[in-house]
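During the reporting period the student researcher (J.K.) took over the structure-prediction task from the postdoctoral fellow and processed the backlog of single-chain submissions. One of the processed entries is reproduced below for the supervisory committee.
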Amino acid sequence: MRVLIVDDDFYSRVMLHDMMRPVAECHIAVNGEEAVGAFKKALEDGRPYDLVCMDLVMPEMDGQQALREMRGYENDRGLSDIQRCKVVVISMLEDSRETNDAFFLGGADCFLVKPIDEERFMAELRALGLTA
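J.K. obtained the following structure tokens:
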């Protein structure tokens, strides 16, 4: 499994990387702009990400905009819902508008609030069909 971890907070990136490292090849982006670039390159290289863990509040480009652009690249390639990567939005925000936008405008598959509980996170990944 290939995972893109997108968060401007160093400790959040490290925590997610430590959780995912035993089961995935992990790449890291520190803002939405970097994430979109890495995502696009992975699609172009024929090695798309299986999972994107996306923070919402970041400099340069926020997670909402990055997610919309990523989904746009998938749509441009004609990927079906089954072929698209899974996106877990991870944020300190518990705002219902942000949650709504992540799901309905950005196509997120799951929304978790920081700090992340490892057992819950892995259970969500299993529910998405990503881990054993």
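The committee noted the following: The chain is about 45% helix and 20% strand.
J.K. will present the remaining backlog at the next meeting.
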